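writing this on my phone so excuse typos. first protein, seq and then structure
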Amino acid sequence: MSIETKIVGTVYEVSELRTTKSGDHVCNVTVPVDDGFGDKKKTTYYEVTIFGKSAEAASKYLERGTFFSAVGRPTARAYQSTKGELIAKVGITAKSWEMYGKRQAKADAVPDFQKTEAWTPPTYDDFGF
């Protein structure tokens, strides 16, 4: 049995494309996800690791502010920084990912269908009965 997790959010940071010793390409994407609201709002930064040809595409097309989702195996790791701090990271190793486009500015946030003229339904005369 395998557990899969889906992360949906706006890309915060995309790392440079790296190559492993075995020749595989790797790209990490950081996606913040908010939980709660007001004084109880908490942001968790998930690190999405993408491998192979998909990593090449991610490093080429993803940028800060892009709506993004990824599905994959959850990961967690902890380590000690050079300053002696304990650091924990959560994320996923992506099996697949999708990009939905760049976030619009608030002034442009009105969908295009609301900017067009009003649609009027056809009348019975339009059908030729």
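second protein below, same order as before
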Amino acid sequence: MRRDPIISAAEARIVERLLAVYHDHRVQISLFKDQLLVALASAPKLRLLIHSIRSRLKDPEHLGAKLRRTIRRSREEKRPFDVRPDNLLAKVNDLVGVRILHLYTRQIREIDLALREIFAESLYELLEGPFARTWDDESRLFLEECNIATRDSPTSIPASTTSLDPLRVPG
């Protein structure tokens, strides 16, 4: 077990247990990612609008670092750390990442509609989003007209790099 001087030994054991749960569920998480990718790739409306799709499973080391940061933040804010083995998959919403790349900011309205159709047809529930990261005021205005929330990006990431937040299978 890696010792983190900023969290206690008991907290480090919690992180290790949570990482073990993640490891035990990686096959199911990977299957979810693959099924989502099939749904996206087989949607004709979406295929016409996008350049490519990238995906990943959260690296266990990055998950451990995120959990340790969350523990420290919880302690600083004097609130309980509420991620447990029985709710890890629901509380940590970036275990699977899917990025849809497209060429033009103006495509996002149609992409959003196509994604909503895919999610409804596949019985996925959108938990939050969509949102787009942008540094450009003109793009921000357009995205807000499309009812897509924006978040500032401190770098010059093109406005057409859009992140859609996680999904959960109902049930």
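The longest strand covers residues 52-57. thats all i got for now
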